[in-house]
TrEMBL record:
This is Na+/H+ antiporter NhaC-like protein. Keywords: Cell membrane, Membrane, Transmembrane, Transmembrane helix. It is a multi-pass membrane protein. The chain crosses the membrane at residues 49-76, 88-107, 182-204, 244-265, 285-306, 318-338, 364-390, 397-420, 464-492, 542-564. GO terms for cellular component: plasma membrane. PANTHER family: NA+/H+ ANTIPORTER-RELATED, NA+_H+ ANTIPORTER NHAC-LIKE C-TERMINAL DOMAIN-CONTAINING PROTEIN. The keyword Cytoplasm does not apply. Its main location: membrane. Residues 137-467 form the Na+/H+ antiporter NhaC-like C-terminal domain. It comes from Natrinema gari JCM 14663.
Length: 566
């Protein structure tokens, strides 16, 4: 955080871990650090992931270079006229791509980045919308590779507790369904994105970032280093026959091939294998590798077929697309390496032993597990790794201390705490990818997202304290948490805006340029004298109304999925 040099900092963390293992011998620690980096790169999953990231970069380059983004802007741009509209649109697209967070981040980020840029949404805000929409949505479904993984972790928890589904009368998938209403943090994180986007009430570093973007037209701060700047890396988009085919066809191919591959590799084509089992048993990295290759290939064929570039330009675009992913690849490799270093020195085990071995009453166990998941995910940068560490511990511990009734609560809060760690950890792969596809400075993204993530986590902690003292119904705690989160956002916004002499409701860039906002009153601290300093938005416009309606339908489907599944 201090140096803003993420690569140097990550390697320093890896090296310090190696130094501890190597008995404080700096030369041996350096050699061990190299061994760890090679080890994580040679992992089959990680190797596939690195290749698919390259293919994703090339596919995104074709969408941009072939004019697909220009065609999208020409088609939908007339409806998206403000930063608020672009933020809501990003939120909505993220909802529809619910089967994988990586794919959702890539597709949503590419689809909306130019619109966000043109409407003066800060890169930090764009990255936040991506990060805090995609992971929560894939966590509770209705169908995703995340769900398959989470169910597999519950099965491991059953094995650790030494009971079977038949003995306790509930399957691992059924327990997952019961846990969804208790995944309070993810619901709040998802809700906050929409609430902040619609109301335009910001606080913390994000307030400064949005004001800079609207007033100064700087979507990046001075001296910021975006992880990927596609216009610099790829060049300007072709204006020869821009067509929506070159935007939608690669994305639809990615979605279809990705989903079918997840299903097929999990044995879904075999008799007696249902969708849930297929997603649980699949090879996620290989399925997404197939999808990303198809994404790149269709992008290339579309560019050649519609004459937007020749074969030489297409070949250059592949290479340049790979280049856009180089910094991201370096960060991801080092993020994996520091996670490996934390595993070697026993970070997670130490935290679990201290927190869980404290003799806390069973009713406080959900709070304890939530805090443990938060800290482990933050320090290791992996929500999946956190789930793998804690689920086999939480299920037998909860079953022994309290009984079957607490298991859905523990599973829900564990998954939510793991996602929180992903949102605030600078070494999280999903956080890195959000920075990449928003074109944001990575540390700026982390800094601006932390206050929002802390707000949702703080309300979650309060709900778990209420659970500990006897309010044990999710149907009470979840709606209450949403109301308290909305109140907290408004209160923090008012406090921070007044402290900084900035608008409470962020105005549009046009309103500032046209003199509709009294910037002198803001700068002089006299905004309370009746001067107009806040933005004004029509809440009954089609875009926010459509957003609210779609989200309500989506959440109804999620809870219908829970009810019918049970």
């Amino acid at each position: 955080m201090y140096t803003r040099q993420v690569l140097v900092s990550l390697f320093a963390g890896v090296w310090v871990g190696a130094l501890m293992i190597a008995d404080w011998n700096p030369i041996a620690a350096t050699a061990l650090s190299m061994d760890w980096i090679v080890e994580v790169v040679r992992s089959p999953f990680d190797t596939k992931f690195l290749v698919l990231i390259m293919f994703m970069g090339a596919g995104a380059a074709f969408i941009y270079k072939s004019g697909g983004i220009l065609a999208l802007q020409n088609w939908i741009g007339r409806y998206i006229n403000t930063a608020r509209d672009s933020q809501i649109l990003t939120w909505l697209i993220g909802i529809f791509i619910f089967f994988d967070s990586y794919t959702s981040t890539i597709v949503t980020g590419n689809a909306t980045r130019e619109l966000s840029e043109n409407n003066h949404t800060s890169r930090e805000m764009h990255a936040y919308v991506l990060d805090s929409t995609t992971s929560p949505v894939t966590t509770f479904g209705p169908v995703s590779n995340w769900i398959g993984y989470q169910v597999s972790m519950i099965i491991v928890g059953f094995e650790a507790a030494r009971f079977t589904a038949e003995e306790v009368g509930i399957t691992a998938f059924g327990l997952f369904l019961q846990s969804i209403p208790w995944n309070i943090y993810c619901f709040l994180a998802f809700f906050m994105v929409g609430f902040i986007s619609i109301t335009q009430r910001f606080y913390g570093p994000m307030l400064d970032a949005e004001w800079r973007s609207r007033k100064e037209k700087k979507t990046l701060r001075d001296d910021a280093t975006p992880l990927s700047d596609i216009s610099t890396d790829i060049g300007e988009p072709s204006e020869q026959n821009p067509t929506l085919f070159n935007f939608f066809a690669p994305i639809l191919t990615l979605l279809v091939v990705g989903i079918v591959s997840l299903w097929w590799l999990g044995g879904g084509h075999q008799p007696g294998v249902d969708v849930t089992t297929a997603f649980q048993e699949t090879d996620v990295a290989l399925a997404l590798l197939y999808g990303s290759f198809a994404f790149m290939a269709v992008g290339m064929l579309g560019a050649l077929g519609f004459g937007t570039m020749d074969i030489e330009e297409a070949s250059d675009t592949v290479v340049n697309g790979f280049k856009t992913m180089m910094i991201a690849t370096a960060i991801i490799v080092l993020a994996w390496s520091i996670g490996h270093a934390a595993e070697q020195v026993g970070t997670a085990e130490y935290i679990v032993d201290v927190m869980v071995g404290s003799g806390i009453p069973g009713s406080f166990l959900p709070l304890l597990i939530f805090l443990a998941a938060m800290f482990i995910a933050f320090t290791t940068g992996t929500s999946w790794g956190t789930m793998a560490i804690l689920t086999p511990l939480a299920i037998p511990l909860g079953y022994e201390l309290v009984g079957l009734s607490i298991l859905p609560v523990l599973v829900g809060v564990l998954f939510g705490g793991a996602i929180w760690g992903d949102h605030v950890s600078p070494i999280s792969d999903t956080t890195v990818m959000s920075s990449i596809f928003a074109g944001s400075d990575h540390i700026d993204h982390v800094r601006t997202q932390i206050p929002f993530a802390m707000t949702a986590a703080g309300v979650t902690v309060l709900m778990l304290l209420l659970y500990a003292v006897g309010i044990t119904s999710a149907m009470i705690l979840l709606p209450l948490s949403v109301v308290l989160t909305a109140v907290a956002v408004v209160a923090l916004n008012k406090f921070d805006a007044r402290r900084k002499n900035l608008p409470e409701v962020m105005p549009t860039a046009d309103a500032i340029d046209n003199g509709e906002i009294d910037t002198d009153a803001l700068e002089n601290g006299t905004s309370s004298d009746g001067a107009r300093v806040n933005g004004q938005y029509d809440l009954l416009r089609s875009i926010p109304l459509a957003a609210v309606g779609i989200v309500i339908v989506y959440l109804c489907l999620v809870f219908a999925f829970v009810t019918l599944g049970l």
